[in-house]
Design brief:
Layout: H1 3-14, H2 17-24, H3 28-42, E1 47-50, E2 53-56, H4 58-89, E3 92-96, H5 98-115, E4 121-125, H6 128-137, E5 142-146, E6 157-171, H7 184-188, E7 192-194, H8 213-216, E8 226-227, H9 231-239, E9 244-248, H10 252-257, E10 261-262, E11 271-279, H11 286-299
Parallel strand pairs: 3-4, 3-5, 7-8, 7-9
Antiparallel strand pairs: 1-2, 5-11, 6-9, 6-10, 6-11
Length: 307
């Protein structure tokens, strides 16, 4: 707000130059000079000296009434800007796989929302390559997912490990595979369902995806009878068919709640490292470090520790 107008409001409300000068921490001669300067700028008299201090002229009264409105509008604007800045600086833009949202990120986000009531929160759910695409484009600041084997170092992403989980296999109640423990080959004889099939455009994230089994395997669309980026749609399909969905074993309780049963396996299943991906240049930012710490604290309550 304009300094001269602000000082004029103080004089009008104090009723004297001396009182206003004391409140504003300026000298009386300085304030007197500034009031004369304001009158010259506006071309009208604003104040009349009396034995009791100063009184407003008709022009001064008009300026005072409108000045109060301007001050209130200015203060409201500053408050709105502060709120907007808080929502931006305290906001969350996170990506995650379905499992991690259900197991621990959901609780962390709700606690964050209670702590920062005006913060804007955006959570993107999807497989790790979709989240990587969003990380590199700036749509999210970090994401939680399986470690990506063969990831091109040129992406500039840092991986922060959280824990290791095994693969589980799930089917509808009464499925033939549930009668006894099964081998992986027996399970793979049935139609397979996935919620993590990557898109062809994500092949650019790999250095040698076309020449190595580890990197090209995720793009093998032929092995799946049904694929969707919606886990709910995948579970619906499994519930109504003989298909089997492979998913992290830590989701057993959640899948059981949905009516699916875990298939007992006679051999060790694939183990994967779960962690946080963040861009190298932002990994050491104060807010990023704090956020990673909060995620790690929640993850430790549900994820098996790293070996």
């Amino acid at each position: 707000m304009d300094k001269l107008l602000s000082q004029f409001l103080a004089v009008a409300e104090a009723g004297s130059i001396t009182g206003a000068a004391t409140a504003l921490f300026v000298t009386q001669p300085t304030l007197t000079f500034n009031m004369r300067k304001l009158e010259e700028n506006l071309g009208v008299p604003l104040l009349v000296r009396t034995s009791r201090g100063v009184e407003l002229t008709e022009y001064g009264e008009t300026l005072y009434q409108n000045g109060r409105l301007m001050r209130r509008l200015y203060d409201n604007t500053l408050s709105a800007l502060a709120d907007q800045r808080g929502r931006t600086e305290q906001g969350l833009r996170i990506g995650t796989g379905y499992s991690w949202w259900t197991l621990f990120l959901r609780d962390m986000v709700l606690e964050y929302a209670q702590k920062y009531g005006k913060a804007r929160i955006h959570v993107s759910l999807g497989n790790q390559l979709r989240c990587m695409d969003q990380l590199l484009s700036g749509d999210i600041s970090l994401f939680i997912a399986h470690e990506i084997e063969g990831l091109n170092r040129s992406t500039g992403a840092r991986f922060v490990p959280l824990g290791r989980v095994g693969q589980g296999y799930f089917a509808r109640p009464g499925h033939p595979l549930l009668s006894r423990p099964r081998s992986i080959s027996e399970i793979e004889a049935f139609p397979a369902v996935t919620s993590s099939l990557p898109e062809s455009r994500h092949q650019r994230f790999f250095e040698t995806w076309s020449r190595t089994t580890a990197a090209s395997a995720p793009f093998d669309r032929g092995k799946y009878a049904f694929a969707s980026n919606s886990l709910a749609a995948c579970l619906d399909y499994v519930e109504l068919s003989d298909a089997v969905i492979g998913h992290t074993e830590v989701m057993e309780e959640e899948f059981d709640r949905r009516g699916l049963k875990r298939i007992a396996v006679t051999e060790p299943t694939q183990q994967s490292t779960i962690g946080i991906y963040v861009l190298q240049e932002r990994a050491d930012d104060v807010r990023t470090v704090e956020l990673i710490g909060a995620i790690r604290a929640k993850a430790e309550t549900v994820l098996p520790p790293l070996d």
